[in-house]
Design brief:
mainly beta, 11-stranded antiparallel beta sheet
Length: 280
Amino acid sequence: MPAYLSRRDTILSAGLLIAGTALAPAHAAMSRADIADDANRFKVYARVRGGAKVATALWWISGIIYAKIKGDVAKPLFRVLGASQNTITMRADGGLSQTMEEAGYFADLNTGAIMARWTNPITGAPSTPEPYKMKSMQAIAKDGTVERPNAPFPITAYGGIGAATVNGDTVWIEENFSARVGLLSPSVEGRKPEVIAGQFRVIDSLATFQARVDDVMLGDDQFVPATLAFIETDPWFPWMNMGATDGLQLWQLKGRKLRNADELPPDLRARLKADYPDFI
């Protein structure tokens, strides 16, 4: 999600710092009525988005990034693929704390191969795509407020976790954030963040997680299979060489929670292990 998919590059890539907070006791099995109860939205979210108990959940993500130029239809630019790890802990005060680490690559639209070079079809300019790797932390208070003390750059964030929707044997829960961020692009690992006074990115990140009701009803020591649908709008990254083109990126991603790294596509798993040996 950059990330989104954030991608997460998403609102969660803001690198929010959280203070240590006591954790709530583990929660037991839930009923169908419990899942639909708005008071339990964080518990449902933790089961669907996160791992068993406070374990880290591993997600495969894949999708297409479009150029949405003002006054024109959206045009596909390239693919994005990667993996995301997410750890969620329930807090004794009714809120939650969350840590997300994600690594992703940009790939050719037709072949799906990770690109070392790319020619912008809008401007004709050649460029070098920058793979991204980021780690972020955030906390959400019981009232839904996103807590963001001591962020290393200016940020104003809105949104939160929506109520669970149950229909038939399926449950959906939404994670929607918007932010005005004083960070020009997702940071390449080891590079100083690109922050320029007075310049901001406005990002909208809309994620929907889906699981089976029967799986969510199990005790919190059980793995809950889940999938993701993710949409994000983001300004052009500098490496895209869009010049003065008036528009934005439109990310459309899908994802699946995995039991372990062996379920990642072999080529992606090999690349991640080569680039980031300690990541997965």
